Each structure stands twice: as structure tokens, then as C-alpha cells.
């Protein structure tokens, strides 16, 4: 069955999409598809400069779409319970990501900002960035990316709250179609104390913007 599509700001858990292809094509089939697209673009896939391109594209796809082979929950397994009394917000701002829009398969790129209030300990900081990558390296919408990062941290860490803000520029809007460059799309999702208390949202946004948030 196809992944369930829900409203991006739904308050219910949103399952990460599972690859629903019934059979993974072989590498040879994938390379042949690239040759077809080169010919469709108007070039000759047998000319010298392009002859190895299908191999390179398929190899690049393994990197660009590595998120399908990653379970974000694995990154969040190791919790450091001894946090020496720290119980305030942990914020990682400006986590760069590269993703591809599911409508045109062209990149959208930007930064994710992630915060949580620890309740049962903290995770290694790099693991939050790994969660961002696990979902970014798939075919995505920015709204779903935002919701999936939020849900993975909420489900696995069970913190007092999670806040995620994603900023992105979509190449499908800047290099084709409407051709508006420099448009930044901002999406955000909150759970727990962030959802319930607007002052916590303000504090998060202030910290993301590089300001000094007033103490709670
Ligand atoms: N909500 C949302 N829309 C996106 C995202 N990425 C791309 N889009 C939009 O997806 C829409 C697809 O619209 P369609 O009308 O089906 O496709 P299209 O004819 O190529 O649309 P244009 O881009 O307007 O030329 C476009 O409006 C894109 O801007 C995203 O992450 N979130
Ligand atoms: Zn697009």
C-alpha cells in the first residue's frame, strides 16, 4: 500500500514513508532508464562524454537517496541518561540538508533547526543531524520532511517537547516553472511544551535566530 498522505500539520503521528515499489529494479535497468532520459533530453547517450554517465547517475542516486536504507530510530537508540542536572532546551540550529522534491525530482536545499526538552537523558548531537539526513535523502515535500523529523525524535526520545523548523529553497521554483529565485519556504512543527506554550515557540525561534532567549 502507498504511504499514507496526511495534512502536514496534523497532530497525530505521521509514519515515515516506506519504499512501496514491489520490486527494486536492477542496476542495469536503472542505467538503461538514465540512457532513455538522456535521449529524451535530446542528447546521444552513446557519445564519449555520456557513455559512463548512467553508471555515475545510478551511483549518485545511492548517495542522494540513501535515506531509504536508514532507520532514523537507530540513530536515537543511544541515550546518555547522566546529563548532570541539565533539563533545559537543546537546540541545533543551521543543520544543512539536501533533498529532492517528490514532484519534480529536483533539489531543494536549506537548513533545519531542531530543539527538544530532554526528559530521559540526551542523545549525541550528531544523531539529530543523522535524523535530518535520514529523511532528507528521500523524495520529499518540505512539510513531510518537517513532520517526519519531529515525529522520529518525539517517538524515540519521548522528550517533553520537540520543535523543528525547516527553511528551504526549491529548485523546481527557481530554475523552472515560475522561475522565482531566492524564495525561502519555512515550515515548522511542535510537540509537547512547544505546542502547548506559545512562549516556548518564541524562545525556540529567538534561539534559532541567534538571539538570547530570556530564561524560563
Ligand atoms: N507544498 C509543497 N509543494 C511543493 C514542494 N515542492 C514542490 N512543490 C510544489 O508542487 C507543485 C506541483 O504542482 P503541479 O501543478 O502538479 O506541477 P507543475 O505543473 O510542474 O507546477 P509548477 O511548478 O507550477 O510549474 C508546485 O506548485 C511546486 O511548487 C513542497 O515541498 N511542498
Ligand atoms: Zn518540485
Automatic annotation (TrEMBL):
Alphabetically list the UniProt keywords. GTP-binding, Hydrolase, Metal-binding, Nucleotide-binding, One-carbon metabolism, Zinc
Instruction: Specify the pathway.
Output: Cofactor biosynthesis; 7,8-dihydroneopterin triphosphate biosynthesis; 7,8-dihydroneopterin triphosphate from GTP: step 1/1
User: What's any one GO cellular component for it?
Assistant: cytoplasm
Q: Which residues form the signal peptide?
A: none
- An MF annotation (GO) of this entry: zinc ion binding
Which positions are annotated as binding Zn(2+)? 101, 104, 172
- GO BP terms: one-carbon metabolic process; tetrahydrobiopterin biosynthetic process; tetrahydrofolate biosynthetic process
InterPro entries, sorted: GTP-CH-I_C/QueF, GTP-CH-I_N, GTP_CycHdrlase_I, GTP_CycHdrlase_I_CS, GTP_CycHdrlase_I_dom
Q: Which PROSITE patterns match?
A: GTP_CYCLOHYDROL_1_1, GTP_CYCLOHYDROL_1_2
Reaction catalyzed: GTP + H2O = 7,8-dihydroneopterin 3'-triphosphate + formate + H(+)
Q: What domain of life?
A: Bacteria
- The GTP cyclohydrolase I domain, residue ranges: 31-208
**What enzyme category does the UniProt record give?**
hydrolase
EC id: 3.5.4.16
As for family, the record states:
Belongs to the GTP cyclohydrolase I family.
Its quaternary organisation is: Toroid-shaped homodecamer, composed of two pentamers of five dimers. Homopolymer.
Any idea what this protein is called? GTP cyclohydrolase 1
State the species of origin. Methylopila turkensis
Question: Which gene is annotated as encoding this protein in its UniProt record?
Answer: folE
Amino acid at each position: 500500500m502507498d504511504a499514507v498522505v496526511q495534512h502536514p500539520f496534523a497532530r497525530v503521528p505521521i509514519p515515515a514513508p516506506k519504499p512501496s515499489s514491489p520490486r527494486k529494479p536492477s542496476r542495469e535497468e536503472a542505467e538503461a532508464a538514465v540512457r532513455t532520459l538522456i535521449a529524451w533530453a535530446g542528447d546521444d547517450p552513446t557519445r564519449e562524454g555520456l557513455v559512463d554517465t548512467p553508471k555515475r547517475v545510478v551511483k549518485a542516486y545511492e548517495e542522494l537517496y540513501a535515506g531509504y536504507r536508514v532507520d532514523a530510530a537507530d540513530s536515537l537508540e543511544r541515550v546518555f541518561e547522566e546529563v548532570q542536572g541539565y533539563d533545559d532546551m537543546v537546540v541545533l540550529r543551521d543543520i544543512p540538508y539536501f533533498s529532492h522534491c517528490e514532484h519534480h525530482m529536483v533539489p531543494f536545499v536549506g537548513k533545519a533547526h531542531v530543539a527538544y526538552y530532554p526528559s530521559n537523558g540526551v542523545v549525541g548531537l550528531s544523531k539529530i543531524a543523522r535524523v535530518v539526513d535520514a529523511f532528507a535523502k528521500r523524495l520529499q515535500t518540505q512539510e513531510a520532511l518537517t513532520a517526519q523529523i519531529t515525529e522520529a525524535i518525539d517517538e524515540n526520545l519521548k522528550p517533553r517537547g520537540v520543535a523543528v523548523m525547516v527553511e528551504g529553497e526549491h529548485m523546481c521554483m527557481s530554475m523552472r516553472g515560475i522561475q522565482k529565485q531566492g524564495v525561502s519556504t519555512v515550515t515548522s512543527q511542535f510537540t509537547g511544551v512547544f505546542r502547548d506554550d506559545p512562549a516556548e515557540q518564541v524562545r525556540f525561534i529567538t534561539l534559532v535566530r541567534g538571539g538570547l532567549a530570556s530564561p524560563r
